[in-house]
């Protein structure tokens, strides 16, 4: 389901973890981010 962007972040000179933190704040899946039942969901891999 989750599409990975190739060549990020190293090829753009971003520090390790920068893209992961930024992408993690983007609501790609509103049904997951806004239902409010995080405790009942399995951790995202």
Structural summary, described in words:
There is one protein chain. With 45 residues, the chain is mostly helical. The chain is 24% helix and 0% strand. It is built from two helices and no strands. It has helices at 18-24, 30-33. The longest helix has 7 residues, at 18-24. The relative contact order is 0.12.
A few lines on this structure:
With 45 residues, the chain is mainly α. It contains 2 helices and no strands.
Give short descriptive properties of this protein.
mainly alpha, 2 helices, 45 residues, elongated
Query: What is the number of helical segments per DSSP (H or I, 4+ residues)?
Result: 2
Helix content: 10-25%
What integer is the average pLDDT? 60
What is the end-to-end distance?
A: 12 Å
* Range of strand content: under 5%
Largest sheet: none
Count of extended strands = 0
Element-by-element helix/strand order: HH
Q: Class by helix and strand content?
A: mainly alpha
Tell me, briefly, the overall form: elongated
| CA radius of gyration | 13 Å
Show unreliable segments.
none
Write the layout of secondary structure elements.
Layout: H1 18-24, H2 30-33
